[in-house]
Amino acid sequence: MKISMIGTGYVGLVSGVCFAEFGFDVTCVDIDAAKIERLNRLEVPIYEPGLDEVLARNHAAGRLTFTTDFDAAVASSDVVFIAVGTPSRRGDGEADLTYVFDAARRIARAMKPGAVVVIKSTVVVGTCRKVKEIIAAERPDVDFSIASNPEFLREGSAIEDFMRPDRVIAGVEDERGEAALRRLYRPLNLREAPLVVSSLENAELTKYAANAFLAMKITFINEIADLCEKVGGDVQRVATGIGLDNRIGSKFLHAGPGYGGSCFPKDTTAIAATARKLGAPLRLIETTIEVNEARKKAMAQRVLAALGPQTAGRIVAVFGVAFKPNTDDVRDAPSLVIIPELQKAGVTVRAHDPEGRAQAEPLLPGVVWCEGPYEAAEGADAVAVLTEWNVYRGLDLGKLKECMAGRMVVDMRNIYRPEEAAAAGLRHIGIGKPPAGDA
Ligand code: UDX
To answer: Would 210 be classed as within a structural domain?
Structure first.
């Protein structure tokens, strides 16, 4: 079975590489010639642990190719995946489907009879049907199938997520579509990871509902953390306590500076906008978006409060600018709100991130970039931990204190044990727990 993957962004590239790893013949297509050239030199344009290795292996085996020749790739494929971007549309926040529809038109012109067109991009409900209409209008004589196969992989563990998913969602309209998806995912042990076969609409909605629920879960624990601070509680103990209830589950209950990344902010905004337009507003999700936005600003205030009344001229070391560890992605990262808020108050920000600097630098003018966390802490009045990279977890807190001019650590990911930080002479201000160490 031959596959083409239209779009070599995050989802497209990881999926293409992983399908090749399953043994299929995969052609990844992109209009960006420079990107394709780099991929052909085996240079991976994103930071994703393990991806370069799997890519190189499959490329060497001849199962994985990269091209800008859209028509040739599609013409020889049994299954064509659409994995192009669906950014938020300016103004109304709905997903911008221009790239999906453009791809559909081009696929229609080039595809062979009997092809299955699978939409992997995150698309609002009803898009698959529209894609079907577009293709049918272009090629009324040709028989084809449409399917929806949303992707749930997380940045930083994308390969593992693809190879060992909790489930695979297969939205289909006929047996040919179902058979194609069953065949594609046969290499997975589908007893452990069920294939949920359903309608196109159900599959499209499943993706949005899953992301919206997870965003809501994070936001819920963030608000509980605020309450813990008021009553002298510890959100980590509360999260453990509620997470042991199987109906709640222990994952996604880490309180922090608010969710970010390329999916949650965009997808929650899109589903909320669509739902409102259709007259079935998702008020819980609308509130989630609002609370999460406010949280990022509140986190900046927390750092400023730690500095005391005089903030101008003070120095804050920021540990981590990526929206989470093991990625260089800073899209919608809390750092993009928190750092400018600190700068507005006259603070000099010295920042470190193991991978995120290149993406963050153009977006965060005025930041002093440092090679390591100790260097960033040099002369700082406070340290603010924004991303829980492992390199920050193991720091020698005594040494950290020595580098600093002050002693405040605003630990937005609760990576340090408060009593350990206090023993090192630091004032630890975590999330959802009492501060530790002398004020
Ligand atoms: C997410 C979904 O998990 C994935 O299924 C979907 O396909 C794309 O969006 P990703 O954006 O890579 O994946 O990141 P994820 O690991 O889910 O984290 C999202 C954000 O939530 C991050 O900013 C993270 O720091 C935050 N988060 C997550 C918390 O603050 N607390 C948690 O307990 C979990």
So the answer is: no
Is this structure's pTM higher than 0.90? yes
Q: What is the CA(125)–ligand 1 centre distance, in A?
A: 22
Closest alpha carbon to 214 in 173, 166, 180, 145? 166
128 is catalytic: no
pLDDT tens per residue, range 349-368: 999 999 999 999 999 999 99
Q: Do the domain assignments include residue 77?
A: yes
Q: Answer yes or no: do 190 and 291 share one domain.
A: no
| Residues near 271 by beta carbon (within 8 Å), at least 6 away in sequence | 124, 208, 209, 211, 212, 282, 285
Q: Which of 214, 295, 326 to mutate to test the pocket of ligand 1 (most atoms within 8 A of CB)?
A: 214
| Options 28, 128, 228, 263, the catalytic residue | 263
Domain enclosing residue 356, as ranges: 234-439
Give me the helix-helix angle, 200-231 and 235-243, nearest 10°. 140
Looking up residue 60, the CATH number of its domain turns out to be 3.40.50.720
Kindly report the length of the chain.
439
Which numbered atom of ligand 1 lies nearest the CA of 151? 7
Residue 245 shares a structural domain with residue 300: yes
Residues 261, 157 share a domain: no
Q: Mean pLDDT throughout 388-415?
A: 98
| 262-308 residue pLDDT tens | 999 999 999 999 999 999 999 999 999 999 999 999 999 999 999 99
pLDDT at 370 over 90: yes
Query: Which of 198, 216, 249 is the last residue in one of the domains?
Result: 198
Q: How many domains in the chain?
A: 2
Residues 350 and 425 in one domain: yes
Our CA angle for 169, 175, 180, nearest 5°, is 60
Q: What is the pLDDT of residue 191?
A: 65
